[in-house]
Design a protein that fits this description.
single chain, alpha+beta, Phosphorylase Kinase, domain 1, Transferase(Phosphotransferase), domain 1, Methylamine Dehydrogenase, Chain H, 6-stranded antiparallel beta sheet, 4-stranded antiparallel beta sheet, 11 helices, 19% helix, globular
């Protein structure tokens, strides 16, 4: 086949072989781009079932438009040769990465699974179950983007298909108990397979890797997997619990959705992510030695080993942070026919929204956005990502930054200086409107999540392990303020120069009446995390957090009333643009709006599916930052 031309595709080389055929690297001669061309094997052409399954893969995958799913470009039928043209991803399958590395570190594995869950969760939201999640169906690009492949046996929960109850579908090492029993797979079946994949990444083996198919099936059906921490003693207990829940024999006891699964991953990732970011590049052909980093010389390698050992011990001491990814409302087929389902399943369908997505030129996750005025804005995120606009968001430029750390918030004081904060107690300052950033020395190591200035001189930063920092000289120096909690603190807000609130983990709420000199604990009204707080005045305030929870106070925080929102998502950021209108963004791409001072909220679409992190206002415009480089804009 090498050198052959099928329709407008010229075959370049073989990328891999599978049970249904061969995948080639090919050149699309019309669009002048490389593609992956999956050709159905000749041995399968005589099977109507394989042909239908192959066509189904093309149809199903073409309906899914998500950065963590390999997109389908087209279907070929050239003189009986059937093919699917897909995105060509330069990278390595997860199967090869596990084989090469033997096993993956905790944060590396969880970050991969987080992206897998994002892609599979999106497929679930469109009514599709993959049914064959495994490392060989997951590819990781050179840039670290995880993409899911092979929807050949995926099935819509709304359709009758070529497979029937009574037929086992999937790969046995990763197959759920209900699939072993040949029952109809559900979303929880995919979650089980993702759990097996996570187990293998952490330990290097699948939990039921026995000698015969019978023993493997018996393991899935009857045996409890050995805790991952018994195999690798550095695995934290939180990961044991996450894996155990994903691998519960009863589907009803597993995570209800991929977002609920992700919700439990995020605090663990941020708790143990004090090491340098992991990249997923392919192994070099020449021999290399590895610790935490790959170095060009033997001298620096020794330094890296020592540093890696230090970090490996140190990061276990760090406390951490939250859930950004809660659960998607469970989708079930409705008894009343939905006449719009055909339109909504189209990859071109986007719910109407008042927010327009801006082109940022990046695909990394953004954690915060802030506008100095109606033109100048800064957004920041993972791996030291900073982007800047000087025209109200119409064009963005990437700002060079010295460190590849996660940046969690950005803010400018009224005195004109800008500040970035992030993991490891890092604070950076700019005096040239964000073009260059200089580190501000502070004697803390906790991750810092939110920064707020009360006036020209006074500002506060909150972070993990109850960390509160204060400046009284416009951010030139910061010192720690003692507070009555060691819980992780997410966000803070001031109603005036005296009255302020801090919210955080396990329903923590702190209040000050003296401008932040001292803080007292507000009696608990929830045990879930609270992610953000907004104050309309000294008496009226709103807090939001896990599971779509919103609480309102009208007496300065003495009592809080739960407000129904109809959302089950994690609520990440709240903003009031005046005394009446407020907005909240969620980790599922929702935007909640209130027009009565937070007494009631209505869910509106944002026009995208990705997790939203922060909402900000400038002039007459609203801006929202989110994952996958998303920045949204709307007038108000």
């Amino acid at each position: 086949m090498i050198g052959s031309v099928i329709e407008n595709y010229k075959i370049i080389s073989v990328l891999g072989e599978g049970g249904m055929g061969v995948v080639y690297k090919a050149l699309d001669m019309k669009l002048e781009r490389f593609v992956a061309l999956k050709i159905l094997g000749t041995q399968s052409l005589n099977s109507s079932q394989f042909i239908e399954r192959f066509k189904r893969e093309a149809r199903n995958q073409a309906k899914l438009n998500h950065p963590n799913i390999v997109p389908v470009f087209g279907f070929t039928d050239d003189n009986g040769i059937l093919g699917i043209a897909m995105e060509y991803v330069e990278g390595e399958t997860l199967e090869k990465i596990i084989f090469r590395k033997k096993r993956l570190e905790v944060v590396e594995a969880l970050n991969i699974i987080k992206q897998v869950l994002a892609g599979v969760g999106y497929a679930h939201s469109k009514g599709f179950i993959h049914r064959d999640i495994k490392p060989s169906n997951i590819i990781i690009s050179r840039e670290g983007t995880v993409k899911i492949m092979d929807f050949g046996i995926s099935k819509s929960i709304f359709e009758k298909g070529i497979t029937k109850t009574g037929t086992k579908i999937g790969t046995i090492l990763y197959m759920s108990p209900e699939q072993i029993r040949a029952e109809e797979p559900t979303r929880q079946s995919d979650i089980y397979s993702i759990g097996i994949t996570l187990y293998e990444m952490l330990t290097g083996i699948t939990p039921f890797d026995y000698g015969t198919e019978y023993d493997i099936m018996e393991g899935h059906l009857k045996k409890t997997p050995q805790r991952v921490s018994l195999t690798i003693n550095t695995i934290p207990p939180e990961v044991d619990k996450i894996v155990a829940k994903a691998l519960d024999k009863l589907a009803i006891k597993r995570y209800k959705s991929c977002d609920e699964f992700n919700e439990e991953l995020e605090p663990v990732i941020l708790r143990y992510s004090q090491k340098a970011p992991t990249t997923y590049k392919e192994a070099k052909k020449e021999p290399v030695q590895r610790s935490g980093f790959i170095h060009k010389t033997k001298i620096t390698l020794l330094t890296a080993v020592i540093l890696g050992m230090f970090l490996g011990l140190a990061y276990l001491l760090f406390q951490a942070i939250s859930d950004f990814w809660p659960s998607i409302t469970k989708l079930e087929p409705k008894s009343v026919e939905d006449t719009t389902s055909g339109v909504k399943n189209s990859p071109k369908y986007v719910e109407k929204s008042n927010f327009a997505q801006l082109s940022t030129g990046i695909s990394g996750n953004l954690n915060s956005v802030y506008f100095v005025d109606e033109y100048l804005g800064i957004a920041c995120g993972e791996a030291g990502t900073i982007i800047k606009t000087t025209d109200g968001g119409e064009a963005w430029q990437i700002v060079n930054f010295p460190d590849s750390i996660s940046l969690f918030d950005v803010r400018f004081s009224s005195a004109g200086s800008g500040f970035l904060i992030g993991e490891g107690g890092r604070i950076y300052k700019t005096t040239d409107l964000g073009d260059t950033w200089v580190r501000v020395p502070v004697q803390v190591n906790e991750s810092l999540f939110s920064i707020e200035f009360v006036d020209n001189s006074n500002g506060f930063i909150v972070g993990s392990k109850g960390m509160v920092l204060r400046t009284t000289n416009s951010g030139n120096n910061w010192y720690q303020v003692r507070v009555p909690t060691s819980n992780l603190l997410y966000n803070l807000a001031f109603a005036d120069n005296s009255t302020g609130f801090i919210v955080g983990w396990n329903g923590t709420v702190l209040k000050t009446n003296n401008g932040g000199v001292s803080w007292e604990t507000v009696p608990s009204f929830t045990d879930k995390y609270l992610r953000d707080v907004a104050l309309i005045d000294q008496n009226i305030g709103i807090v939001c957090g896990a599971g779509g929870e919103v609480f309102r106070t009208s007496d300065g925080g003495k009592s809080w009333t739960s407000i129904s929102t109809a959302s089950t998502s994690g609520l990440a950021s709240v903003l009031f643009v005046n005394d009446s209108r407020g907005l909240i963004v969620s980790t599922r791409g929702e935007i909640l709006e209130s027009f009565d001072g937070g007494n009631s909220w209505k869910i509106n679409p944002s026009g995208n599916y990705f997790s939203l992190s922060k909402i900000a206002a400038s002039g007459k415009n609203l801006y929202v930052a989110g994952f996958n480089g998303v920045v949204l804009k709307s007038g108000f």
